[in-house]
Design brief:
Elements lengths: L1 H13 L2 H48 L3 H12 L1 E4 L19 E4 L25 H17 L4 H6 L1 H7 L4 H34 L6 H31 L3 H30 L5 H24 L1 H4 L1 H40 L3 H13 L3 H32 L22 H7 L1 H23 L5
Antiparallel strand pairs: 1-2
Length: 459
């Protein structure tokens, strides 16, 4: 009986105009998205490779300088070194925070550059979200899933077919289960075909060489997307069992979709900023500058009295310098902790919407999520610290010997900017809460649809 109901549901859906529209939308949106994002990825890859060549050429100019001490001055004081971040391969499918993370960083002992990449980007692109696969599933496919099933029960009641089926002693549990399985298979099949075609296009274009790690992560992204689609499909089935007219079910479905997709994810960060305000980065920088100025004034006073203080004066200078650095570090730590608290509250509130859980999961799997942003910041700090230590060791050598030996400069020995990517197992563990929420939503919605349909009035 169940197989017959599933087959009937699939055949009815496939032969409907709704299925044709869904199939064409899936294919059109996914292929257009993949084409646009692949072209953008290739442009970013070309820019990355050109940046590497340019930065190597700058180091070659330093190496070409004849005087060893001049090489050190150029490297540490004037030009510094750059670090480049390669484009994320799976950003073709889920762009995430990739546009907000700089593609290159610069460090030097003095006058380190803050690279503003926004001035070189198309300003129109900043007005709209990237049309990646994750965006399409999150916004468009979730709505299509609701539209696909909103009248599955109430629509049949209006047409009178549901009453006929129950009059023939068809079990109610078989009807609701058959509608869920048959309907979801009808919806998931064109989606899988469309994404498989998109992946094939990316592979044939040669933009990305998929390895085992990338394919595994991509499979997880597709799996989470199917789980997310099933959530909205099950929600639509639940709404259909709670209403008796298709028009009412449609209005409720649209209202729930607007709240979950548009309102809650965008409102959560605003509430978090109000409840847990964080001082601006400019204010923190101003306070650090004030601490630095205060430290310099105190050092000048001590230096003017060095003759009277002697060794004691040198000790006081070191204590004042260490105290100033400790105060600045305390300020940085306060900012990081407050910012982390605000971010955590934002994520918790936004998880009231499954759209947020889906975005968190897919961006982390694609390597374009919050973890990547944190990894970039840590890599940048590590890059600067290693450069400072390297410069200090070279300057100590120069002070001891009076000058540096010829041939001391080797570009390969310079600190490198390296981001540490988390392992897939660690990523899955990190996403356990979001994945569990998607599963729980699915189970609760199906249980609700099942229980309400058992008492559904078909007259």
């Amino acid at each position: 009986m169940l197989l017959t109901l599933i087959r009937r549901e699939i055949v009815g859906n496939v032969l409907s105009f709704r299925f044709l529209v869904t199939f064409l939308l899936f294919f059109g949106l996914v292929l257009v998205s993949v084409f646009i994002m692949t072209t953008d990825y290739q442009a970013r890859r070309s820019a990355y490779e050109a940046s590497l060549v340019s930065h190597r050429a700058a180091l070659s100019k330093i190496d070409a300088a004849g005087d060893a001490n001049q090489q050190a001055d150029d490297l540490f004081m004037n030009k510094g070194i750059y670090g480049d971040r390669s484009p994320d391969d799976l950003g073709v499918f889920v762009d995430g925070l990739a546009p907000a993370i700089p593609t290159q960083v610069h460090t030097a002992l003095f006058n380190a550059r803050t690279i503003d990449e926004q001035r070189y980007r198309n300003p129109v692109l900043a007005l709209f979200d990237s049309p990646d696969f994750g965006y399409i599933v999150n916004i468009v496919v979730s709505l299509l899933a609701l539209m696909f099933v909103f009248d599955a029960i109430c629509g049949e009641k209006e047409r009178g077919t549901l009453k006929i089926a129950l009059a023939n002693s068809v079990p109610r549990d078989s009807i609701v289960l058959g509608k869920w399985i048959g309907g979801f298979v009808s919806l998931a099949s064109p989606f899988i075909v469309a994404i498989a075609t998109g992946i094939g296009y990316v592979h044939l274009s040669g933009a990305i060489s998929f390895d085992g790690q990338s394919l595994t992560r991509l499979a997880w992204i597709v799996g989470v997307s199917l789980l997310y689609i099933s959530l909205f499909f099950t929600l639509g089935l639940l709404i259909s069992t709670l209403t008796h007219r298709a028009s009412t079910a449609l209005i409720i479905s649209l209202f729930v979709w607007i709240c979950w997709i548009l309102v809650i994810p965008n409102l959560a960060p605003v509430i978090a900023r109000i409840a847990y305000p964080v001082p601006s980065a400019q204010k923190i920088a101003a306070e650090k500058q004030a601490i630095n100025q205060e430290t310099q004034i105190m050092l000048q006073r001590i230096s003017q009295q060095t003759l009277s203080y002697g060794a004691e004066g040198q000790r006081l200078q070191e204590e004042i310098t260490q105290e100033g650095e400790a105060r600045q570090e305390k300020l940085d730590r306060f900012y990081r902790e407050e910012f982390a608290t605000q971010t955590s509250v934002s994520k918790t509130l936004s998880r009231l919407s499954p759209a947020a859980s889906y975005r968190y999961a897919t961006t982390e799997l694609a390597g374009t999520g919050i973890s990547t942003f944190i990894a970039f910041r840590q890599a940048h700090e590590r890059f600067e610290e290693e450069f400072d230590e390297y410069a200090e060791s070279i300057n100590d050598q120069r002070n001891r010997q009076g000058r540096l030996p010829d041939g001391w400069f080797e570009a390969d020995q310079l600190p490198q900017f390296q981001m540490i990517s988390p392992r897939l197992d660690d990523t899955i563990s990190q996403l356990s809460v979001d994945l569990l929420l998607l599963v729980v939503y699915n189970v609760l919605f199906f249980m609700g649809a099942y229980l309400f349909f058992l008492r559904y009035d078909v007259t």
